[in-house]
User: Fold this.
Amino acid sequence: MQGGVEISGLSPVVIPVFVSHLGCPHRCIFCDQTQFSEPVAPERIPGIVSTFIAGCRDPHLRKRIIAFYGGSFTGITPGLLDRYLAEAGRLVEAGIVHGIKASTRPDMITPELLARCRRTGFVEMEIGVQSMDDRVLEASRRGHSASDAVSAARIVRDSGLELGIQLMPGLPGEDRESFRRTIDETVSLRPDHVRLYPAVVVKGTEMDRMYQAGAYVPLDLDEAVRRCLYGYARFSRQGCTVLRMGLPPSRSLQVAAGPYHPAFGFLVKARGYRVMTGVLKQRFGGELDLEVHPGSVSELIGYRKENIDEFGFIYSFDERLPRDYVQVRGAVERGCLQLKDILEYIL
Ligand code: SF4
Assistant:
């Protein structure tokens, strides 16, 4: 599910409207939204929405949500912000979309502004928290502190909107301990949704210059997968949906270095099954006979079959089983594992 709203069991249609860098007080070292698109003018929103909806499968059976991405929505100058809200609000009133969401910075949220967003038809506000370690935030030149994120999360929750949080494992100055603390503190903010975007070096950014000068070393893919698996397991345990892990594939994205992979989310979940299978192998030995949900079979087998090649199990599936779960056929409690049971083996 994406976007925080669901009807008819179908995922919502999320219609992205890019407001690239609008409202941003400066450039964070890892960011260059101009590689993706120019900001969309408010008057173009109705056309973008109708074209997007026309290209979707079953759009009338699904919730339809406008999503303002790529800038700091609540920091947009008042006159322009009014125009965005007016255009999007009209589409909500007309029933063409069911709601609006946006991403923004933690230091640009006030109760008054969120109340206004809610009246206009907002259903969710997503905050770019990135890290809860002030040293990491400073090294990334975010210009806000972890306590800003705590206040922003409270304001979003108090407003009645759903709370989304974005984190970026692997920013400068982050080690495993700092990352675990970020997860602990983010879990305590009780987000409804989280996105985990491991930091990659985008060409032309300040982070690229730091990387070229040897002042920043990005995570390797293996470490990024481990950190995201740890986060995924912790958030899932709290009932918080992890909507995405890893940057979406894009022809415009120019990666200079770092843990980018087009199927990053799959790698994370496959690693989860690898760890769970390894634990079961230690407990039971021999050739394991495993059962999973049918939707989890490819994750159990692993990327390029590396899990099944390493452990040599046989498997079957049962749709009554939950996702992110594996059991040894016929075994009792010790033969059942969920991701939350393997936290100590991940990081
Ligand atoms: S990360 Fe967010 S706040 Fe920073 S420059 Fe990019 S869009 Fe703006």
Remarks:
- Residues 1-6 have pLDDT under 50 and may be disordered.
